[in-house]
Design a protein that fits this description.
Jelly Rolls; eight-stranded antiparallel sheet; mainly beta; single chain; Immunoglobulin-like
Length: 329
């Protein structure tokens, strides 16, 4: 299938890039754990974003959480997920409410089988919950309790609430993102170097690994638990990458595959049935850093020099041009 994309006549071009994969949870015991929860144990401003696609309504479903209870049954931390009816939920601990806290719900159900962007924000003593880039709920929490001794996890929480659905594009910020920033960048392909971005996982790895890679320089990778390194990877979603110095109006997303991705510079490009293919790689500044002709081969191996970071691979052939985002670790 071919998709038509508009040309932007300037030095900047927004190119739609297909996320290779997302991860799926079975609603039983699937979860992603992290070696340390310390980077996610915040006491100040925070923003957590995630793309969520529910498969079924079970009970309260934990998507991204760092929550515990103290000896007085006070919830501490934060919890992003859905409730037992299929509404999105951003939960914040409150030091004055034993066995409870502050619940910020979405206005509409999100159990429609489509991806929804959820964003939970804390700024000072206020909390905000955005769904698909729109502010749904806000609350003042003068006694909020963010600092948690619990585990930072995907798909599970301290009380055993699990998640049945798909997850993509998780972002953890140590800043309170504004309404304008959330609306503008919720579908953008980030580089991992944005100010205030503590962790960014876009799950562009795919079958064969049980690691979810952090695309920032912090290296806060996650690890599958009770999950299959093949079956728990599913098709991902689109994001918008702004790159430099390229004009193109037709992108065929189906022919080319790149693996592994992320990589250490050694990668393989599978060209399938493309004819007269050539390969170019650009860094984030738009500078050409690699070029080669495939010479009729169906696969092409590359050893990419240069620093770690985001790159854009361009394949030009008789069938048109195609783009893939690369991450060198």
């Amino acid at each position: 299938m071919k998709r038509i994309y508009p040309i932007i006549i300037s030095c900047l071009l927004a190119v739609s890039v297909q996320a290779q994969t997302a991860i799926t949870f079975d609603g039983v015991d699937d979860q992603v754990n992290f070696s340390s929860s310390a980077p996610f144990n915040v006491t100040g401003n925070v923003t957590i974003e995630a793309k969520v696609k529910m498969n079924t309504v079970l009970d309260y479903q934990a998507v991204v959480t760092n929550m515990d209870l103290d000896i007085n049954s006070i919830y501490r931390g934060y919890w992003l997920g859905t409730d037992d009816e299929g509404y999105g939920l951003w939960f914040i601990g409150d030091t004055t409410q034993a066995s409870s806290g502050e619940y910020l719900y979405s206005k509409n159900l999100i159990d429609d089988g489509a991806y929804h962007h959820l964003a939970g924000v804390v700024k000072g003593d206020s909390a905000f919950f955005y769904v698909d880039g729109v502010l749904d709920t806000a609350a003042n929490i003068p006694n909020l309790s963010l600092a948690s001794a619990g585990l930072f996890q995907y798909g599970n929480d301290v009380e055993g609430y699990v998640y049945a659905g798909d997850l993509d594009d998780v972002r953890f910020w140590n800043t309170s993102r504004t309404a304008a920033q959330i609306a503008q960048y919720k579908d953008s392909c980030l580089t991992g170097s944005e100010a205030g971005l503590v962790m960014f996982q876009h799950f562009e790895v795919g079958a064969g690994t049980g690691t979810t890679h952090d695309l920032t320089s912090n290296g806060y990778d996650g690890t599958f638990s009770n999950m299959d390194v093949n079956a728990n990877w599913v098709a991902g979603i689109n994001c918008q990458q702004v790159t430099v110095g390229i004009t193109q109006n037709e992108v065929n997303k189906t022919a080319v595959s790149v693996y592994p991705n992320p990589n250490n510079g050694a990668l393989t490009v599978s060209l399938n049935e493309l004819t007269n293919a050539s390969i170019s790689i650009y860094n984030v500044a738009g500078k050409l850093v690699y070029s080669a002709n495939a010479n009729g081969a169906t696969t092409h191996k590359i050893n990419l020099s240069g620093s770690a970071g985001l790159y854009l691979l361009e394949v030009t052939s008789d069938q048109g041009k195609q783009y893939h985002k690369l991450m060198k670790k």
